[in-house]
Design a protein that fits this description.
The chain is mainly α and 381 residues long. It has 15 helices and five strands. Residues 1-26 are annotated as: Disordered.
Amino acid sequence: MQNEDSSHEPPGEYVPSHPHSYFRPEPLSVESGLEITDEVHELAIEAAHQLGRVDGALSASDFSDSICTRLRRIEAVESARIEGADVTLTDVEAYRTRYADDTDPPAVPKDTREAVNCEEAISLATGNTGRHEAITPDLIKRLHEVLLDGVSSDGDVVGNFRDHMVHLPSPDLGQRSFVPPTPESVEPLVESLTSYAQAGGAHHAIIDAAVIHYFFETVHPFSDGNGRLGRLLTILYLMQEGYPESVYICQSEYLNQNKYDYVQRMRAVSDEGAWNEWFEFFVEGIRSQAEHTYERIRELHELQAEYSERYNGDSATDKLARQLLQHPYFAPPDLVDVLGVSRPTVYKAVDELDRSGLIREVTGRQTGRQYEASGVFDILR
């Protein structure tokens, strides 16, 4: 990947080794001296503006808890999909609905478990009410344990830094693999990252999030799960710096849609010092996803207004229609207490809304059926 306009030296060096040279990054420091272009600064300001719009839209919503749950799940699903998992939002919704009260749920397909683990890690790191923990090596290790719970491969070191070299294949067939630094250098490098984060970085918070993400992926401190964890650190850092809505913008959706550029722009930083090109890509992902999330929330508000107008009576069917944004995915027995009616009445209401197209059955089973609100999930997807 060529970058004739880069004015920075690479933030480290390649060290000759057999069979491939490995990259040894310089420790992360607030004294980095990076020169950020005006275009990147303006893009970061616009991204922050779009994040503020998301915050306002969520604050004005009567069903923000439900929206936030789904947006967190989209982030978890897309982050798992970047790493090759074959999983959908419906898979995670089905898992959560079926095993909501089960403290020891049965085994599920590995790909689904990876997305569920991502959601668990997001919740652990950020809390369900906007709280967040400080970024420390200990937190990073605990999050790694959650991410790899039940999905690790033989040889993976879970909950601790890797003890062996790793090779990352390039998406370009003719490009050599990228080899992160040696195992013994991982811990001090991660400590430099957490010190940088705790100090509040050196630039605009959204630009610093790009610095932190690049550095974490370049150090590659674990044998597996680095991509998922690095994307979670982006959320955590932005929350720390006053952007609690960053957890809801589904940045992994953008990165998954632009996976080739995602990998190659980071590689170009190591090879050529192409920081500003990486910043443009990363910050644009925050900006565009925040804008997209705002539009999603606006469309959901319009959908709620439509349902409230069309179904304004006192029947169970009307009440269920008005509750679809609060309960967009459900098994009918779960609605007995929500609607305050009997099971037969719930099933009658579900049948009526199924026939009208407001909801759709997603399991294909005759028993244990589950439904999703068609309009809600069409917007989310």
